[in-house]
Design goal:
The chain has 401 residues and is of the alpha/beta class. It folds into two domains: 136 residues, Aspartate Aminotransferase, domain 1, CATH 3.90.1150.10; 229 residues, Aspartate Aminotransferase, domain 2. Helix content is 37%, strand content 18%. The chain is built from twelve helices and 17 strands. Strands 4-12-11-10-7-5-6 form a seven-stranded mixed β-sheet, with helices on both faces. A four-stranded mixed β-sheet has the order 1-2-3-15. The chain has a four-stranded antiparallel β-sheet with strand order 13-14-17-16, covered by helices on one side. The protein is globular. The N and C termini lie far apart (57 Å).
């Protein structure tokens, strides 16, 4: 029998004492009717905000027809969404999952299997970068390499070699005859909105080409319009061999995907990988509805317009309140405020102003609004953020007296 004095949920989350009942666009409304401007978006998941009419119609229409049948049968929505993804990216092949971690697992298996069918089963190791976050499964915490996520879960899954961020000598030294691929986030999310420079990304592509390695990009957080391109690597003009996608592609519905070239995916034949729920009709209906909106003429242009407005406002804040914010990071609506004060202080001050945000490593605060954010809503956000920053600055000055 369950002990009535013990909370029934695992104690794995340090949750805020907020209960939201509904959402409207970029706003979340609590049970008490308080309205919060949502600059967390479910950690970059609610790409079209809350209650988007096109997503609601797609989900409801499909819910009345068919929810789940498994991948034993053909699912027309998969064909449609995969075709659209391949038409708009580097990829030839798509495998649908339920989450980003599963998409990364598929990407890792795809890379290892590629070398196996090419007659090199010894090539299974994958190089990753310190500060990365690739998920919470045993394989993906090993890929991320962060001790705080590895502690207490037994031996680290074999096959991942972390190198320091931006250290070309360490990267080259880590490549051996057992190396299969290089895996990275174009902009590290949990790692503090730290971007790989254009030169670094081009160099990684060149190294992979020269050494016969596969380049795997984790665009779970940076993809689907978040940076002002459909995918962040498009800013540089390089192409990966494999890419993991999730979060924004489902607009709030659990959905992920592993994209690959036909060459990279040639080892993933019948029976080598699978999923029960992945690619279910409900997820495919929502994923296609998200793309309907994201791919509309002018939608991504608006992301860049609004993000520029926010960046200009944040630049003014760093000039006027250098005791609170020291740097603006990120691209598009994947924004990081490098804090001088503890980022938790700014997070709480923003919450007091009824604006939601997300912490990150390196004392950075993430701002991840829905991609539907308007200029008027951005102005409201800037007012709230300035009020929070000014309050912290004033408190700092009072303490110094």
């Amino acid at each position: 029998m369950t002990n009535a004095t013990v909370h029934p949920l695992y104690d794995t989350y340090n949750r805020a004492a907020l209960r939201f009942e509904r959402g409207e666009g970029v706003w979340l409304i609590t049970e008490n009717g308080d309205r919060y401007l949502d600059f967390a978006a479910g950690i970059a998941v609610n790409s079209l905000g809350h209650g988007h009419p096109h997503l609601l119609k797609a989900l409801n229409d499909q819910a009345e027809k068919l929810w789940h049948i498994s991948n034993v049968y053909e699912i027309p929505g998969q064909d449609k969404l995969a075709q659209r993804l391949t038409e708009n990216t580097f990829a030839d092949k798509v495998f649908f999952t339920n989450s980003g971690a599963e998409a990364l697992e598929c990407a890792i298996k795809t890379a290892r299997r590629y070398h196996y069918v090419n007659g090199h089963p010894e090539r299974f190791r994958i190089i990753t970068f310190e500060g990365a976050f690739h998920g919470r499964t045993l394989a993906t915490i090993a890929a991320g390499g962060q001790e705080k996520y590895l502690e207490g879960f037994g031996p680290k899954v074999e096959g991942f070699d972390q190198v320091p961020f931006g250290d070309d000598a360490a990267l080259n030294a880590a490549i051996t005859d057992e190396t299969a691929a290089i895996l990275l986030e174009p902009i590290q999310g949990e790692g503090g909105l730290r971007p790989f420079s254009e030169d670094m990304l081009r160099n990684l592509r060149r190294i992979c080409d020269e050494k016969g390695l596969l380049l795997i990009l984790d665009e779970v957080q940076s993809g689907v319009g978040r940076t002002g391109k459909l995918f962040a690597h498009e800013w540089v003009g390089i192409q990966p061999d494999i890419m993991a996608v999730a979060k924004g592609i489902g607009g709030g519905f659990p959905l992920g995907a592993c994209l690959a070239t036909a060459e990279a995916a040639k080892g993933m034949t019948a029976g080598t990988h699978g999923t029960t729920y992945g690619g279910n009709p409900l997820a495919m209906a929502v994923g296609n509805a998200v793309l309907d909106v994201i791919l509309e003429d002018g939608f991504i242009d608006n992301i860049n317009t609004v993000s520029l407005m926010l960046k200009q406002g944040f630049a003014s804040l760093t000039d006027r309140y250098p005791d609170v914010i020291s740097e603006i990071r990120g691209k598009g609506l994947l924004i990081g405020l490098k804090c001088v004060v503890p980022n938790t202080d700014l997070l709480q001050a923003l919450r007091d102003e009824q604006l939601l945000s997300v912490g990150a490593g390196a004392n950075v605060l993430r701002l991840l609004p829905p991609l539907t954010l308007t200029e008027d809503e951005a102005r409201v956000a800037l007012q709230k953020i300035e009020a929070a920053v000014a309050k912290i600055s004033a408190e700092n000055k009072d303490k110094a007296l």
